[in-house]
Amino acid sequence: MKGKQAALKWLRGLSKLGVVIVSMGVLIITIAWLSGMFEDKIQPGWNQSDGLRLTGQATDVVHEVEKSYVEEAIGTLKASSRTIVSSKLLSSIEEITVVAGDEVETGQVLVRMDDKEYQSRLAQAKRALEAATANREQAEKQFSRVQQLQRQNAASRSDFDNASRDVQVTVAEEARAMQAVREAEVMLSYATINAAKSGRIVDRSAEPGDIAQPGQPILTLYDANSLRLEAPVMEHLAVKLKSGDELDVFVDALNRQFKATVDEIVPQADAPSRSFLVKASLPKSDDLYEGMFGRLLIPSGERRHLCLNTDAIVRIGQLEFVDVVLPDQTIERRMIKSGSLGMPGRQEVLSGVDVGEQVVLHTANQSSSTVKDGEKDGKDE
To answer: Where is the CusB-like beta-barrel domain (predicted)?
Structure first.
């Protein structure tokens, strides 16, 4: 009995061991299959492809040229001559004769205020002047009479002095009344606001019926001849500029370029940005408005770069290639990175070719055929 039990235990252990061994074998075979042990291997190394050869296609040479380099300074158009129109009186607005965008001339009426109160004050001042004038005339007549009586020893010295004093007092009162009339006339003139200079209305801050307060803006105008681009310019460029230099300004909204003259360079650098504020005046134009975006184009010297014929560039999606002719007349396709367009028919190249290398020129059909051949070579390899 005991012998049978021992044999059973030994068989169970042997079966478990067999299961483990089989499982390990299956795992090892699976790993080997996943790692590609049962597939043909490609020996490491590089095989030279026969490739394409130059067979009469048109070619061109990569040239090295010098080009003026321009840096941009971003700025905003602002007016150097800007006027805030406000009232000197506390009064209601009767009429505003202009709206935003209107061109005004010097002396043109802009705003009319309610002037009834100031007309009344002027009338009172004039009546007071008439009374003062009458008092002076009466005092002068009285002085003349007293003076004649004194010559006849019929008036005392005290009467003469009193008459003389009355003349002086009435003359002073008349002068004060005249000044009050002038003051009332000036206050009345403030009820009509005229343009102090020619310019363009850019903002209207009040409407008829509003109460105007002294110093509160009613209109804003600027001189269209005083527009200039204000732009922060990096230190290494700003130190090379001086007042009177002529630069170009490009206005993106108009897609136009304007000639500008450096008008002012603020003699203090901005520490965080390491830049100077440069102000360049622009010519008068009906298309330019304050607040527009502009770019100040600053020449920063000459630089050398490579360029090639645009017909040599083959574009596949967003990638750019050229076919370079090697010394053994085989054609090698290279990926390049192009820059900006230069003169018509020429393209700046930033990387991928060297000066003096020969590249194949493509027409539309040749480019399509070359692309297919290149794709086929890639598949064959």
So the answer is: 229-296
